[in-house]
Protein 1
Amino acid sequence: MKFSEQWLRDWVSPQLATQALADQITMAGLEVDAVEPVAAPFEGVVVAVVVGKAPHPDADKLSVCQVDDGSGDPVQVVCGAPNVAAGQKVPFARVGAVLPGDFKIRKAKLRGAESRGMICSASELGLEEETSAGILELPATAPVGEDFRAWMGLDDATIEVDLTPNRGDCLSVKGMAREVGVLNRLPVNGPGVAPVAATHDQTFPVRVEDAERCPRYIGRLIKGVNLAAETPLWMVERLRRSGIRSIDAVVDITNYVMLELGQPLHAFDHANLHGAVIVRLAREGERLVLLDGQEITLGGDTLVIADERGPLAIAGVMGGEHSGVNVDTRDIFLESAFFSPLAVAGQARLYGLHTDASHRFERGVDSRLAREAAERATALLLEITGGEPGPLIEVSSDAHLPVGRDVLLRATRLEQALGKALPADEVGEILERLGMGVEPTAEGWLASIPSWRFDIAIEEDLIEEVARIHGYNRLPVRRPAARLALRPDHEAHTPLGRLRRQMVARGYQEAVTYSFVAPDLQQALLPQAVSPVLANPISSDLSVMRASLFPGLVRALTHNLNRQQTRVRLFETGLVFRGELDELQQIPMLGALVCGSRDPEGWSGGRDSVDFFDLKGDLESLLSMSGEPDAWRFEPAEHSALHPGQSARILHRGEEAGWIGTLHPAVRSRLGLKVDAILFEVRLDGLTHGRVPAFTPLSRYPEVRRDLAFLVAEDLPVQALLDTIGSRAGEWLIEHRLFDVYQGKGVPEGCKSIALGLTWQHPSRTLNDEEINQLVDAIVTETGQHLGAELRG
């Protein structure tokens, strides 16, 4: 919200300098982003009148003008502006004047003609950023000889306030004036708005078919307006200082009233309305060309203003091109309506729009303001464009309009929250100055909330209002009391920070991606996934809640590859969302992705590419931190995003806990990736909840080791062999170690040789060869019977 300081002071003018006023507004919770002068510095410019104009004798595009600047004798000036004419009031820079950019005006000769001064354009005075084509024409009432800067009130500042979404009531000069008046205990004196008497009885039918979304609609037919009338300079300037460009008198007036009172308005060309104005939901597939020339296809949940032939405007957002006013318009239908915030919220963004009207309606507009705004706009239209007003047409539904609210503020709760007891009279006065009706009660104060404060609903809202008006800097500074007893640290719990540090230590970088992903990316990786779809997404490619960490990691990989990063090692922790909203599961996961070379480039490193077992080793380093690595298992399985034969399901205590594997070639091709990527994700609860290691007394007796090499089918998982050996190796087996896997000469085709080192140790005696041989025989027999394994000679 941008507004002119002078405009604000027309409503309420505290005895504060500009910066002090801005600081006061900020401390009241309405953060001031910027305070900027409305015009660059200049001096020596006065209001003048062109009393004569003649062609330059030696230049076709120049004119020799006689200018009366109020000093007595006319001054000769050479001017190149195409729109200069005799009788015009203009800003005139006398000799010695200094214009923006430290440009000094001196006597000069242009093509042989003397020029003593300069007739100025708006851009030359710093009032426009773009170069003006012609001089700035002033109203006929401008006083000749008056200092132009003082007459225009250019010693002014534009104050820009960054409002939070709950303070839509301050999106107007009236709203800001209310705040400043409350803070300084001053009355607010805005322009009087009186009902405009109708001069004809003609109306235009209005039909509201969706009263829930549009509880109040006010219209008025104004006949005989003159669209050729120029917007007064004072209004153009106030709009400019608020960041709005002047367009034509009707549009300028509706914009002006919106800035002044906070009520968006719209004017339709009555000649282009047919049958009736209808407020309804759009019919699926209806099309509308907007005022900016964009043609859109309307959805069935969009509220529109229509007539009997079709849509005219998106309600509360933007009007249509066909029904807008133009230079040929003679009769206008003025609209002033109250749309519920939910009816407008998201509609502008849905069509790629953001307008001043939608910005206000989304945050809430005073439901009682529509009539006042219509009367104010009518009065300005009659003053500037002329015309004959008809009676106001109002269609409203009391059942759907916001109802008044009473909120109780307890004195004890206020003192507890502020850390300070405020006098009852002061609290009551603050609430009354905020526009509330206040009724003292035994507990405190019962406040009736005004219609423009739709953000106040509970007691805490009133506490906030009292605190900010009283002054946050006047509240006592107290440190919060807290019990600082140490919490027990469960040794079986592995903090997430340790897991992160472990991944970083192994050469990974942490990625933080959105919890929302593109639906086509999730569909490519997880075609069977079910997760919530956002009704109002940030953008179309972030419209689905992620059902896995894979989509975010793959998108981060693509981002890095596109920037010539060929070796990528990323990990991420976060929630994944599975199921519909009614039965939504939010599961904390840890995922990782690698691609590129195994080692960083260097003279001592190889150039081999990272593979499945590199990532599996990194994952196993995390599993071992839980204190029970044996609780984790990997079993071959197929996953839609992973390469068949290079993927595995991760099990924790027999239950599925995640997946690991190489990205599926078909998925990789669909996503446009030209390199292999290996990735995993695993549930965080399994990684962070383990067991406390227990001490086992060391045996003083020697170990006995046997190395066994088995010939098994090449597709047999090593884990199956280890499980079988573990079942027959006896209770004194303390270690089994895989130290060789071989295929080639001496090994039958379709088989592989797996070499294991088995170590036994008894805690209280020495094991003899006979006992060990019996265990080895049992292992060989069991593996042969169940796995078809043979002991390699």
Protein 2
Amino acid sequence: MSLLTPERLYQLLPAIHRLRDAEQGQPLRALLAVIEEELTALEADTARLYDNWFIETCDEWTVPYIGDLVGARPIRPVPSAGVSMRGWVANTLAYRRRKGTALVLEQLARDVTGWPAVAVEYFQRLATTQHMNHVRRAPQATAGVRDAAGAELAQAYGSAFDAFAHTLEVRNADPRGGRFNISNVGIFLWRLRAQPLGQGAPGEADADFFSARDSGAGFWHMHPAGVDAPLFNIPRTESGGAVTQAAREQHVSAPLRALALHAELERLRAGSAQPAPVFMTQAAPVLRVFARLAGETLPVEVAREGLWICEIPDAVEQALPTPRVAALDVRRGRIAFAAGLNVQQVWLQAAHGSVADIGGGPYDRGDALRAASRSLSQGQATEDDAGGFFDPTVWQAGVTHLLPLGGTGQLFATLRDAVAAWNAQPAGRTGVIVLMDSLSETDAAPLSIHIAEGSRLMIVAGQWPLVPIPGALPGTVGRLPGRFEARDVRAHWHGKLQVLGTAAAGSSNPGALFLNGLLLQGPLQISGPLGQVELAHCSVLPGGSHITVAGDSPRLALRVLASLCAPIAVAGPVTSVSVADSIIGLLDDGAPPAPALHASQAALDLQRASFFGSVHGLTLAASDCIFDAPVTAERRQTGCVRFCYVPPASAVPRRYRCQPQLEIDTRIAALRTAALAAGLPAPTGAQEAALRAEAEATLRPLFSARRYGDPALGQLDERCAVQIRTGAESGAEMGAYEQLRQPQREANLRDALAEYLRLGLSAGLHYAN
């Protein structure tokens, strides 16, 4: 863009012409103003045209054209994984400089799938007869029986880092899964992602931690909900962002390996500097433990040398000997302390695993927050320079367990205090409560949130940083209403939560409540006249924690977005129940089956969701869903079920490309066509019934895990039928993880391997988790 002043064409005229133009009413000035508008547009287009010559700055529509110039094949973009055509085209020349090498195969796999990857050349792991003058010490032809770490490494990660030699396997790598052969290459992919939480140290302004939970059996759960959950490695990024060496354990998002941590801690205790630790580094360890003893104010960090790796049983009969401070079971996420230590509180910084960014988590929830902010402010908020929404009239409070409260009345020590301040606000108010750290808050008494007529409240887990106050003295900072960020925090509330609408029964403008980024452990009860209740990126845990909606809120619109939820029960008529990108119906191990969603007097709008239990609604509109148990719609003359798995014995509206019905119809049509072509009688009813029974038995969803705390919760097993794993409208899997577009990511990699794999080699894809 030009830096010249406005009316630059008019200013170029001699002064005598401008004076004469002024005497005649400035018609020349008006003409030049019109010409200047076109000139400015031409200059902007010229500048944009120059930027479009470069892949880093070009418009999105020009990316395929630049890719065509360098001969880059198109790939399928996956926004949820950061996979784009732009990055693929930008790195094409770098790929081709090292075409055919294992390192470029690793980088290709990461760039086109968004998953950490490891490339294994299997000829290097073959047991071969060697010339005695050129003996290769690796791989080991005979596995060492005393090498427990090596044996564990051979089994972990799908054997991606196996150090032992193997005999020949003649199967082809793709598609039969052969591995140890001269022409085979294995590409290992880690689909689970680590969710790191916590930073800093006690007393620092920006510190954050999450709480361990005392089990009462002699150990603490390293998950605030008190469930067994493995700790995950936080992947280290390779220097420079380019793959210059083969990926190792520290570069992938996988559960922490106990023997690897044990070996590092033993070397630290022995004072050995080599090899340097890769997990428990001084600057960025994969986990930190802080314990508060009786009589102390703040927890103190347990030194790395005081951590011992072992298995912790369900009942600890004997505490650790005195020299050992803490014992860790990273496989189940447990911690126990030495005898004589009266530990009152345990704070942690670590990472747990998940399939995707759904449920309460520390990931960036900015997009969902901005969408909720529009609804919260009813269009009154404006977008600021940071991309957030700012409404200066909003009432806002923060809840912190770590920062000093001060005297401004903006910060509260507990959520109960902040809710009490909100309940005292007049009707028609808009408010936000920011939960500013991840420490657990437990309260035995029910917490009641009042939503008055026309009032709108958001409770969000996030950061509310200090920013310069506009118009104040330089250096003056404060917390401005609306300037908060939904990331890096996962707040945990343990107790009964009641949402009570206080508007009149016939009110045309009942209030609304928005929950974002919370981990709720306890019953959630919704009652009274309400207009909207939205749970976005929340986890409502099982174990007596069902979500119940009373029958006295006919105008209520209940929305569940990108959440993990216990069963939902709606007692009376409501306007609608919407579920998107969520898993509904979580139950504890051993709990009897229960309906995932029961709202027999509500219109159900279900998009890209998985239901662990039956679903019952008045009307049903569903797309890309998995119903694990029969689903029933009372009124089937309206609505539609598209691209879903619908179990037998379901009563739903008209279906479109739903399984297993689509496969049944296809098989029966093929059987009839074959019989007609062969001149045979038409298939009997018994034959068609047998085909139907076979399809119903084989085409059903298989999940890797159903228990909350397992990182693979709701993930479709690899043995699941391909009709379900690719049955969504987009060609991705049905259910809550459709957004991941896993079939498209795998197809991207196979297309790339076809171009960059050396002639004569065959590649097999292996999912490490």
